[in-house]
């Protein structure tokens, strides 16, 4: 009878340890998720700011290019004989065009980074939904473990009472009373089955 009591105590302690371990893992995963989410949000905000700035610069340069083009058309008739002025003006236009191409390339790069960050954020949201489902499942398992702890404690108390009665009566007994199988004990047996996947 004492061995049975000790076994029940060990089972109860094991269930409590599993419960504490699961809670710790859940807390660590939640903190990690929040840190990663905050980092991605900060990166996304920075990329959006840069993309907006580059877009504004691109628009400004396009406006300047439009102005240069307009001036070029105005001066073309007047300065047809001034090759030097024409060459200088053309050089400015070429330089502006190169700047626009460079800015367009940088804008596309930051746009791709923004899209990548946005995709990562969507993936994190999907992972969060998955973790939330896993959390709900884990909480359900925790509830079963808590129920198991209460059941084992009650069974231990019952066995101790029987042991006290046997000791007080000092009556030899050839058989040991074993609690009958109930739906609750069946549920506990299934929960403690080693074939069941552990948390």
Automatic annotation (TrEMBL):
Residues 168-199 are annotated as: Disordered. GO terms for molecular function: syntaxin binding. Residues 171-189 have a biased composition (Low complexity). Keywords: Coiled coil. InterPro entries: Taxilin_fam. It comes from the Eukaryota. Belongs to the taxilin family. This is Beta-taxilin. It comes from Nephila pilipes (Giant wood spider).
């Amino acid at each position: 009878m004492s061995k049975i009591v000790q076994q029940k105590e060990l089972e109860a302690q094991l269930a409590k340890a599993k419960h504490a371990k699961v809670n710790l893992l859940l807390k660590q995963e939640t903190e990690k998720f929040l840190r990663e989410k905050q980092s991605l949000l900060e990166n996304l905000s920075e990329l959006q700011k840069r993309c907006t700035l580059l877009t504004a610069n691109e628009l400004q340069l396009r406006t300047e290019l439009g102005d240069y083009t307009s001036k070029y058309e105005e001066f073309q008739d007047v300065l047809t004989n001034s090759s030097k002025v024409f060459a200088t003006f053309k050089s400015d236009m070429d330089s502006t065009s190169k700047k626009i191409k460079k800015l367009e390339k940088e804008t596309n790069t930051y746009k791709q980074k923004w899209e990548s960050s946005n995709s990562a954020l969507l993936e994190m949201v999907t992972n969060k939904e998955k973790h939330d489902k896993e959390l709900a499942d884990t909480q359900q398992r925790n509830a079963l473990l808590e129920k198991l702890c209460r059941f084992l404690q009650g069974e231990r108390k019952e066995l101790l009472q029987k042991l006290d009665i046997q000791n007080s009566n000092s009556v030899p007994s050839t058989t040991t009373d074993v609690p009958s199988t109930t739906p609750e004990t069946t549920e506990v047996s299934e929960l403690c089955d080693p074939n069941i996947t552990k948390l």
